[in-house]
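seq:
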Amino acid sequence: MSKSSLSLAKPGRGGRALQRGAIAMFANNPVAANLLMAIFLVGGLVQALGLSAQLFPTVDPGIVNVTVAYPGATPAEIEDGITRRVEEALLGIDGVERVLSTASENVGVVNAELKDGVDSEKVRSDIETAVERLADFPPLDAEEPDIELAQTVSDVITLVVSSDHDEMALRRGGEWLEQQLLALPTVSMVSLMGVRDFEIAIELSESALRQYDLTMNEVAAAVRGSSLNLSSGELRTQAGDLRLSTYTKRERGEEFADIVLRALPDGSLLRLGDVATIRDGFADVDLINEFEGRPSLFVRVQKSEPEDALIIAADVRGLLADLKPPSGIDVAVWEDQTEVLEDRLSLMVRNGVLGFTLVFLFLVLMLDLRLALWVAMGVPISFLGAFLFRGLADLQPFFVYHPWLYLLLVPAVAMRLWSE
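struct:
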């Protein structure tokens, strides 16, 4: 039987079925098939190159955090005045599945776990409205609540900063590097690790307290009342409204020394520096970090979902190539997550090329060269077509999970060539 006898135009039950299907339509219109194939190849390649690369898929945690700082408060005070009231306000919100709270010294945190499939931004807005409706909240000395929707972030690259200087100089070097990284247009999330928090310690002298007849509570009340930012409402006048606020929060140790505790009988003022030793340094925590035998700290660069890890890592490496750190400060790469990502992408490309080659060689053995080439083209057409439709729809459409649908073009072209 000759090849011409297999023409699609030959009458018969099978021929009529093919003429009514998508394969017959493309076989009878080679220009449309070739044009659609070109759109899949070019458009899919453009969309694939524009995709952001990350090591693991993004998972929405579905958690809204409500944090309220309450300096000087005990866990019991925070539970009664903050966490319990916020819990009661959040339990009736639609979309909230469970509420967990933690009351610790100086801060209260309430975590609202959301139900699956709800609009996270809308629920966060409802939570913010519910907290704002609470009467006399937050307490007088507490700060305004911070309401944030938890986001999934991933590590990109971690740098190590080492120095032979003291801890303060090392911390300043890490903060300098942090500012240099944040100056890059592609970097938005940088944090320090392996460092102790700053702490201002006030050590009272027992003999001085007895001498001036002071108690610990009196000193603590004076410190709390003299180091805070307080809003006192608005003053309405004919010229306009004025907001009354007090900004006296102290951030350095020497600023606390001037706090007035009381006035003495001779008219002089008793200040905190007269009865206490004030140390402006780091928290008393055992922490040892060394890199090549030198004290060190880590600077971690992270990314959010829409950002590209490969581009961020390339910009950070470019910065390090021309970086001139302060004297006595050395910077090196500790961990680069994009190396694993690049290896996986390279493996995927190699497997794709190998698979295409094996399919093509197998088809050459079974068919002629021209037909084998067009049938093998179904592999890149299907995958690039999946990238194209995903980019246009900005979601995971039916075509992404079923790329074999694009292979309808391949039998159409093959049958056209066979009939000719």
